[in-house]
Each structure stands twice: as structure tokens, then as C-alpha cells.
UniProtKB/TrEMBL annotation:
Pfam family membership, one: Cupin_3
Name this polypeptide is given: Cupin domain-containing protein
Residue stretches making up the (S)-ureidoglycine aminohydrolase cupin domain: 165-232
SUPFAM superfamilies noted in UniProt: RmlC-like cupins (SSF51182)
Domain of life of the native organism: Bacteria
Provenance organism: Variovorax ginsengisoli
The organism's taxonomic lineage, starting at the top: Bacteria, Pseudomonadati, Pseudomonadota, Betaproteobacteria, Burkholderiales
């Protein structure tokens, strides 16, 4: 049973996930290069892009979080210093943002994008491993199969129009039962490893440098035996 979709393996192995070549909307600047693994309620999409060259975008048509897995990507908003992203670095492009995108040869990134008719945050926001962490809520006690972990997060991008949150999160080890995932969630692991359990007993293991997506409502468990840190995107959609 597949409850989490692998978008990228750090060791270069091909993930078992199926991708399809498709644009995310009619004005998608990466239309020719986008490969979508998942689309669902809330007009969210996740997948990967292989891109090189330059693009000038007058108005970015949606919200998109990018995490580079190979090469180098530079995002430049007029009047601001360029943001240069190497491997394992990410950023969020707000809907409506005007920017120049430049990618070195053989650049690849994973993404999580969402449509947004009334954007509330524009610009380019960096996602970084060395975040300004603050304590965050652990999983509910009734879902835990062991001690309560200490969790911290740094949510740096919020767009209320799309119920879209992005940032960095970390936690001490914990073990959680299989339950319906409460959000659409994109994850890029910066440290540690996680074992994701499915109701049929199968387990998907993810390690540092892997990227994956879990749809809202997917039945999934969590088990980590060391410190875990991740870049994340979360979106809550109506049932």
C-alpha cells in the first residue's frame, strides 16, 4: 500500500513513484519540464523538475516551494539580492511575484505547489536548515507509542488564501501509530531518517536528502530513532 510518495532519493536511485509530464496550470513557467507525482484537493501538486537556462516571470501564477537536489538555482526579485540555492537548499515563491529564474546546467529540484486566487504573501522566502526554531506542539499523547518528543519549528511563509505553510521543523525521536494524516504535507529530510508505516504493515524508509509527499487523509505511522529535521510544506483542505 502506498501512503507516502517518494519524489527523490538522496542516493540517486529512481523512486518507485509514478510521474507524469504535465503543466501546473496554463501559465506554468516550468510547463515543459515539470513531472507531477500527485495532484489533489486544494489545487496542490507535488513532483520534480529538471531545468536549465533562464526565465523572466512577470507574475508567478501560483505558490511554489522548491528544494534543489542537483545543480544551482538563482531566484532574483527586482531590488533584492539574488537568492542562490544549491543542493538541499529551498525557497518559496509567492503567487504574483515578479522575478528572474536562472538555473545552471543539470539542475533538478523537487516541488510542492498550490493554486492561489487571492495571494496574501508575495516575494521569495528562503528555507534554511539553520532556522529560528521555536517550540511546537508534539503529536497528541493518544497517538504515541513511547515518550513524547520535543519538537521545534520555524514557519517562515504563510499564505492564508491557500492555507499554505512552509518552513523548517525538527524533533527528538518518537514512534506514532498509523492514523489518517491531518494535512497535505511535503517533506525534505535535512537530518535523520524516518520509517513510515502503512496499515498493511509495509514500511517506507526515508533518509537524509530524500523528499516525499503525504496526502491529507492517508493512513500513515511514524518511527524515528534519532534527531530528524526537515523542510516542510503543509496545507489543510476541506474534507
Amino acid at each position: 500500500m502506498t501512503v507516502a510518495l517518494l519524489l527523490h532519493r538522496a542516493d540517486g536511485a529512481s523512486p518507485s513513484t509514478s510521474f507524469r509530464k504535465a503543466a501546473f496550470g496554463p501559465a506554468d513557467p516550468f510547463a515543459r519540464d515539470r513531472e507531477i507525482a500527485w495532484e489533489g484537493p486544494g489545487a496542490m501538486s507535488a513532483g520534480r523538475v529538471s531545468f536549465s537556462g533562464g526565465l523572466d516571470v512577470a507574475r508567478f501564477p501560483h505558490i511554489e516551494t522548491l528544494v534543489v537536489v542537483e545543480g544551482e538555482l538563482t531566484l532574483t526579485v527586482a531590488g533584492e539580492a539574488p537568492l542562490v540555492l544549491g543542493a538541499q537548499a529551498g525557497a518559496v515563491i509567492g503567487c504574483g511575484t515578479a522575478l528572474h529564474i536562472q538555473a545552471a546546467a543539470r539542475t533538478r529540484f523537487v516541488f510542492c505547489a498550490a493554486a492561489c486566487e487571492k495571494p496574501t504573501q508575495r516575494g521569495v522566502t528562503a528555507l534554511r536548515a539553520e532556522a529560528n526554531f521555536k517550540p511546537s506542539n508534539p503529536p497528541p499523547a493518544e497517538t504515541l507509542l513511547g515518550p513524547t518528543p520535543q519538537c521545534r519549528s520555524d514557519n517562515v511563509f504563510t499564505d492564508d488564501g491557500a492555507q499554505y505553510l512552509a518552513g523548517t521543523w525538527e524533533s527528538t525521536p518518537y514512534h506514532r501509530i498509523v492514523r489518517a494524516h491531518r494535512l497535505n504535507e511535503f517533506m525534505f529530510l535535512l537530518a535523520g531518517g524516518v520509517r513510515f508505516a502503512a496499515p498493511d504493515g509495509s514500511v517506507l524508509s526515508a533518509v537524509t536528502g530524500d523528499a516525499l509527499f503525504v496526502p491529507q487523509g492517508a493512513p500513515i505511522g511514524w518511527e524515528s530513532s534519532d534527531h530528524v529535521a526537515k523542510l516542510y510544506v503543509c496545507q489543510s483542505v476541506a474534507a
